[in-house]
Design brief:
By secondary structure, this protein is an all-alpha fold. It contains ten helices and no strands. The protein is globular.
């Protein structure tokens, strides 16, 4: 139960801080200087750093169904544990998006149709207007690299005290590169939370942000399960 509560809190924080930076402190926010793409990227990355040290000792700070799936494929998690983590992560993401929505609607100028809720997407009208193929490829590759860092930084021979920083900085870099492509998911729960409230195209396109991250995570998991990226003494 401790692990599941930690995953709920951690995923809540990731969605609230990361998507909150885009919605509450992004370009055009009344009374605040726009934080821009770099600011949103750092918000996601620093949220992971904070949660890694806050809840990492309890649950490992997966806060991402793709991370749990990668750990399962790598042989570090049972199917039952993975499913329980998924449920906790989805609850945390929905709660984070819900609280963010309640706060955002406290500003008269806010409209979920115009300002969104940090939902992911692609195609005409969405940020850089990248095509489906580009969006899918980015999410697979970005999640694969993200999981390589996570699984590598948390293997037995790695310096555990640095794992949270390495993982958080990696997520920040992924956002710097990919925000214009998909808004960056690499995390099905992070995509589900805002999409439920935004509805419409966000829900229609949600499948990509479930399938692509799981593929990327599986590829990384296979490399670690086969010991191709495991240290010799791990």
């Amino acid at each position: 139960m401790k692990k599941l509560i930690a995953e709920v809190v951690g995923t809540f924080a990731l969605v609230f801080f990361g998507c909150g930076a885009a919605v509450l402190a992004g370009a055009g926010t009344v009374g605040l200087s726009p934080v821009g793409q770099l600011g949103v990227s750092l918000a996601f990355g620093l949220a992971i750093v904070a949660m890694a040290y806050g809840i990492g000792p309890v649950s490992g700070c997966h806060v991402n169904p793709a991370v749990s799936f990668g750990a399962f494929v790598a042989g570090r998690m049972t199917p039952a544990e993975m499913v329980r983590y998924w449920v906790a992560q989805i609850i945390g993401a929905l709660a984070g998006a819900g609280v963010l929505y309640l706060i955002a609607t406290g500003r008269a100028e806010y409209s979920i149709e115009a300002n969104g809720l940090g939902a992911n997407g692609w195609g005409p009208g969405y940020l850089g207007e990248y095509a489906l193929g580009a969006a899918f490829l980015f999410e697979v590759v970005a999640t694969f690299l993200f999981l390589v860092v996570i699984l590598g930084a948390t293997q037995k021979s790695a310096p555990g005290t640095m794992a949270g920083l390495a993982i958080g900085l990696t997520l920040a870099v992924i956002h710097i590169v990919g925000i214009q492509i998909t808004g960056v998911s690499v995390n099905p729960a992070r995509s589900l939370g805002p999409a439920v409230f935004v509805g419409s195209a966000a829900l229609q396109q949600l499948w990509l942000f479930i399938v692509a991250p799981l593929i990327g995570a599986a590829l990384a998991g296979v490399l670690f399960r086969s010991k191709l990226l495991e240290a010799d003494d791990a």
